[in-house]
Design brief:
This protein has 15 helices and 16 strands. α1 (49-61) packs across α5 (156-172). Helices cover 35% and strands 17% of the residues. The longest helix is centred in the middle third of the chain and has 17 residues, at 156-172. The protein is of the alpha/beta class. The protein has a 6-stranded mixed sheet with strand order 1-2-10-7-8-9. It has a 4-stranded parallel sheet with strand order 5-4-3-6, with helices on both faces. Strands 11-12-13 form a 3-stranded mixed sheet. It folds into 3 domains: 15-46 and 155-302, Rossmann fold, CATH 3.40.50; 49-147, Rossmann fold (3-Layer(aba) Sandwich); 313-461, CBS-domain (Roll).
Length: 462
């Protein structure tokens, strides 16, 4: 009887055939129509459901999976959810490896599907044994019967979009699409759709939206805050010959755009969607009403409620500001004798930390990995006078690396936070790292604020 009704036999039958909607309020003043392909309607809430089922189907045909097998995959969350849905339907176990920059909602979501989740540091090279790529590979070798779909190398990933997403866009726009914009992660969506659309019309432009810092737009892959897009290496699934242009977008602009789309269009989208929409609007602003820009929205903003849709998190990372006397005023008043952010690297000797503390008359110094401008993930810890004093009695202490003696990293405070709020935080900490648009820019202490207050009084009295 059910067979005669419009009822799916499985949640897997609901993957694909996602709707498209025109963006009307964020495109004000732009004559070229911008249409969003809304992938949040997939059962797993993202575009990654498409390659997930396709990769498992292919693995089953090749005999790589059998009842009781374990699927292991490094993921920023969305591919994991897609794989977990397939695994739930077909009786497989799952282990997903994620970086520590992903939101807690994503970790909890995967666990809700019964998956095991392992979290690894984000600020290590792909070949580092601690990276989420290397960890996943090690787990596959250690676990009998394990299978890794490997979305970064598996040709079925872009093929799934060539066979489904691309044809859907072509059909839904009646072949009128002139520009396609999507984020570049594994490259599967961008290249699979791009290949199909260019076969229909070679003049269609394929544009990659990329986080600032990702290798696709010329970065070195150093950590950024946008999740699920960009890379620190070149996946086999990314075909640069299909891409006409790559446009980089900052974390700040991505988050701002995501919040704007939610509030103006009623579409709650993730940070990587903000990246894609920002690029789509940039592209559309240079086109006419005869063109048609399609932008793919890969996932929902529900996985980012504790981050980009949380005002407190946004303030702490310096993306939004309070009105009134805020910390930025204090920083601008500080002299130039001491660099805004003075730090030692983990591999530097303790001697170097002591020399910098003495040279600049500081009581504490940050330990960070990388060159300026640093990312939040590159802040590793701190070394203070007490730690140095305690260790000075140890033999060979001065020859140790800073990484071996450092304590926990300092807490963050946003550059736009009110002075009153900062003072409350300084009741708990001697120094705090100041974040501006997601990047650490300075260290501030209670004495800095008191000096500003005193100088302001003197100025008024004078």
């Amino acid at each position: 009887m059910v067979k005669d009704m419009d009822i799916a036999d499985s949640v897997l039958d609901l993957i694909g055939r996602t709707p498209m909607v025109r963006l009307t309020r964020v495109t004000e003043g732009i004559s070229c129509p911008v249409v969003a392909k809304v992938e949040t309607t997939n059962p797993g809430g993202s575009v990654k459901d498409r390659p997930a089922i396709a990769m498992i189907d292919a693995a089953e045909k090749e005999g790589l999976l059998s009842p009781g097998s374990t699927i292991i995959e490094p993921t920023s969350g969305n591919t994991g959810v897609g794989l977990a849905i397939v695994a739930a339907q077909r009786g497989y176990e799952c282990i997903f490896v994620m970086t520590d920059k992903v939101s807690s909602e994503k970790v909890d979501l995967l666990k809700a599907y019964g998956a095991e989740v392992i979290v690894c540091p984000v600020d290590v090279a792909p070949e580092d044994p601690r990276s989420y790529y290397s960890t996943a590979e090690r787990l596959v070798k250690e676990r009998p019967g394990a299978y890794r779909p490997n979305q970064y190398e598996n040709p079925v990933n872009p093929l799934s979009h060539y066979q489904t997403t691309g044809p859907e866009i072509w059909e839904q726009t009646k072949g009128k699409v002139t520009h396609f914009v999507a984020g570049a992660g594994t490259g599967g969506t961008l290249c699979g759709v791009g290949k199909y659309l260019k076969e229909q019309n070679p003049d269609i432009q394929i544009i990659a939206a990329d986080p600032e810092g990702s290798v696709y737009s010329g970065g070195d892959g150093r950590p950024y805050l946008v999740e699920g897009v960009g890379e620190d290496f070149w996946p086999d699934t990314y075909d640069p010959s299909l891409i006409d242009k790559v446009i980089a977008v900052t974390d700040a602009q991505s988050f701002k755009r995501a919040r704007e789309v939610a509030r103006k269009e009623g579409l709650l989208i993730g940070g990587s969607c903000g990246t894609a929409v920002d690029v789509a609007l940039t592209v559309a602003s240079e086109l006419s009403h005869e063109d048609l820009v399609v932008v793919l929205l890969p996932d929902s903003g529900r996985g980012y409620l504790s981050k980009i849709f949380n005002d407190q998190w946004m303030k702490e990372y310096g993306f939004i500001s309070d009105e009134g006397l805020n910390l930025e005023v204090i920083l601008e008043s500080k002299g130039s004798d001491v660099p805004r952010l003075l730090y030692v690297r983990p591999e530097d000797s303790v001697v170097k930390a002591i020399e910098l503390l003495q040279e600049h008359n500081l009581s504490e110094i940050v330990v960070a990995q990388g060159d300026l401008p640093l990312s939040a993930a590159e802040i590793k810890g701190t070394i203070n006078e007490v730690q140095l004093l305690d260790g000075s009695f140890e033999e060979g202490f001065l020859k140790k690396k800073c990484a071996d003696v450092m304590g926990p990293r300092l807490n963050f405070v946003g550059s736009g936070e009110l002075i009153s709020s900062v003072l409350l935080k300084l009741d708990q900490d001697q120094n705090i790292i100041v974040m501006d648009k997601g990047r650490p820019t300075a260290v501030v202490s209670e004495s800095d604020i008191l000096s500003y207050v005193e100088s302001s009084r003197e100025g008024k009295n004078g």
